[in-house]
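Title: Prediction job returns without error message
Component: structure pipeline
Severity: low
Priority: P3
Assignee: unassigned

Description:
Job completed but the reporter wants confirmation the result is attached to the right record. Sequence as submitted:
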Amino acid sequence: MEKRLQCEHKTEHELTVQRVKEEILSSADIEKVCKIFHLLSEPSRMKIVLALLKGEMCVYHLAEVSDGTVSGVSHQLRVLRDNKIVKAKRFGKNVEYSIADGHIRNIVETALRHLCCRVEE
């Protein structure tokens, strides 16, 4: 038989468990959140997003700052645009890209701040 360890904070943790069960996202919503992180986890897409945090740019300049090809950056921009990470505005023959909304900016900037964070053990 498996011996169960007892929790020293049983009452407190049981209340937390109950609250989590009441407030947890649906499986569909959890998958949507995971998809955002998955999209941002690809290095070439992250380079594009980081560049766009500095301001609007066209595909040619995004290719230059991300050390990618125009074709490759265009493909990644389509993926990011289709998933509402970036948005596009047309000016004649030129298209300028920018971060879709402040939420995406906050997610990335929070991750960048976390790089410098020292977690206490």
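Comment from assignee: result matches the submitted record. The chain has one domain: 27-115.
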